[in-house]
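Checklist before submission:
- one chain only
- standard amino acids only
- sequence pasted in full

Submission:
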Amino acid sequence: MIELRTPAQIEQMRPAGRFVGEVLTALAAKAAVGVNLLELDELAHQMIRDRGAESCYIDYHPSFGASPFGKVLCTSVNDAVLHGLPHDYALEDGDLLSVDFAASVDGWVADSALSVVVGTPRQEDLDLIEVTGRALDAAIAQAQPGNRLGDISAAIGDVARAAGLGINLQFGGHGVGRTMHGEPHVPNDGRAGRGLKLRPGLVLALEPWFLHTTDEIYTDEDGWTLRSQDGSRGAHMEHTVAITADGPLVLTERAA
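Returned file contents:
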């Protein structure tokens, strides 16, 4: 069921959005050569405890997961692009790290992701992150009342195709509210002018993700981490966005 939030409820979602943005900012600053993925997860867990928030991931067990997730972050490195299960791995120079984080504050959920290069960057990784960010910006720009869901999807797909990237439709954006994943599903490609009419009160997590040279993925032996079929690297960007009468409101905006 698709739920619309009142202006007052959207205001109540702001603290969750701010908190998720603060955590991702702290994680991006912490990520460095030699830092273990489990250290990043513990930092996020400590911030959750300090804030009195709740993790959306630790007990999460959808049909595509092998078991309850058990951690509070998704940390996807290099050829991993989504649902990366934190494990005993120390970041190396040049690693491409994507971090996805969702939490509930006072009963409202926000969900966001970013990608960064640790240490010495490869230009192709910086380019991939930049394209993924532009796709997210294009999606947000289309989150206008009166537009259609396909306008958001088409905006993401147009940016990807212009950059010569493939587009995987298995995982995409989604509704957000009292739970992390709700209706509607927001594919990362589509046809403009088609689909659900966007109305004020709809809150969406928009999340383009792309791989360098493929759109095919497989599930790692850990039962969660999604990796590229050809070993190419991936980037993932996400914001929780409320559609208001005045246009899109990014609830998980991070400090510059």
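Reviewer check: Residues 214 and 230 are 7 Å apart (CA to CA).
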